[in-house]
Amino acid sequence: MIDYISNLHFASPWWFLGLFIIPLLVYWQYFQKKMVDPTLKMSNLKGISVTKSWKEKVYPYLPTLKIASLAFFIIALARPQLSLKEEKVKAEGIDIMMVMDLSSSMLSKDFDPDRLEVSKLVAKEFVEKRVHDRIGLVVFSGESFTQCPLTTDHNILLDFLESLEVGMLQDGTAIGMGLATAVNRLKDSDAKSKIIILLTDGVNNAGYINPNTAAEIAREYNVKVYTIAVGTMGQALSPVNRRSDGQYMYAMAKVEIDVALLESIAKMTEGKYFRAVDRASLENIYAEIDRLEKTEIEVNVFKRYKDEFRLFLIIGLFLFLMWWVLSQTIFRTFS
After folding, report:
1. Residue 12: which domain range?
2. Does residue 74 share a domain with residue 152?
3. What sign does the CA torsion over 177, 180, 182, 184 have?
4. How many domains are contained in the chain?
5. 3-state secondary structure of 65
């Protein structure tokens, strides 16, 4: 109990100013109120039993339940938090840029519901596992931009991943542009390991930076690139045209991915090439990357806090409910 109290602190301590009302309520209840309550004066108490029942003995203390409940409510509003034991954590000293293709072919139906939605879901699962890494997001199609810079606030990154849609950029597949943008975000990083996870389902056909040139730049800055080709073998139900209302028209089309280019990029940067033909294989790829990229850095020390206001709120509600029930039943008075 002593350790519990010593580790307790309050996030909103200014609420304790409300405790100054407690002495005023006590004064009113037990001193001032007696002057306004009706009294009956009798000249002689002979013939009246002076033995007090338990009700008479308990009744004067009934208001303390209400006053005590108010005190617990004020403590709950002050947001008591339990400072848990300091923990030493060995973090992963890795900066990761995720580069995701948003070309229209990512809507192909060889994945359920489509390549983009599955890629987003699996990427989110990967991010949630890398608790201590800085992770960023670059998107590309006919052009590229940084959707989220390197950050340890993974909630923001997950929100950005969730919001990705085909059509955000001019259509096309500018692999070199996407890779170069990610390298630019990593080149000044001091992390022990810098990696890019490049996911695409097509052939480089846009942009003004050659993918091999971008790979050479990555190598110069010691950035390792893992390339993932997304798409089944053979044919897939894919967007082939677009109506005037913006809706895509689908037909069976050959899956074309520049495997040789992706293998070259991975080899040049000492990374690895993967092929994902369904959700299970994509999950396995991210799991393998997760296993491959483990670099421990110096120990970080931090504190965690646990909100404890619920305990005080429950006690306050219990006391108030007890006062109300007793005042309406056993100790009910009539005026």
Report:
1. 2-35+54-85+304-328
2. no
3. negative
4. 2
5. helix
User: Residues 69, 120: one domain?
Assistant: no
CB 200 within 8 A of CB 212: no
Do 322 and 188 fall within a single domain? no
* C-alpha distance from residue 279 to each of 4, 165, 169 (Å): 47, 19, 25
The answer as to whether 29 is a domain residue is yes
Strands 223-230 and 235-242: unpaired
Considering the domain architecture, whether residues 312 and 266 belong to the same structural domain is answered as no
Beta bridge partners of 100: 139, 199
Radius of gyration of the chain (CA): 34
Per-residue pLDDT of the chain (335 residues; tens, 9 = 90+): 565 666 677 888 888 888 888 888 888 877 765 555 555 566 665 555 555 666 767 777 788 888 888 888 998 888 888 766 555 555 557 899 999 999 999 999 999 999 999 999 999 999 999 988 899 999 999 999 999 999 989 999 999 999 999 999 999 999 999 999 999 999 999 888 999 999 999 999 999 999 999 999 999 999 999 999 999 999 999 999 989 888 999 999 999 999 999 999 999 999 999 999 999 999 999 999 999 887 665 545 556 667 878 888 899 899 889 888 888 887 776 55
* pTM (whole model) above 0.90: no
How far apart CA 35 and CA 67 sit, in angstroms, is 20
Verify that 63 and 174 share a domain, yes or no.
Answer: no
**Structure token pair of residue 265:** 């990029």
Q: Tell me the C-alpha to C-alpha distance, in Å, between residue 220 and each of 73, 98, 188.
A: 61, 19, 12
- Take residue 291 and report the two structure tokens written for it: 């296993």
Q: Which of 240, 132, 158, 149 is nearest to 188 (CA)?
A: 149
Question: Do residues 226 and 249 both lie within one domain?
Answer: yes
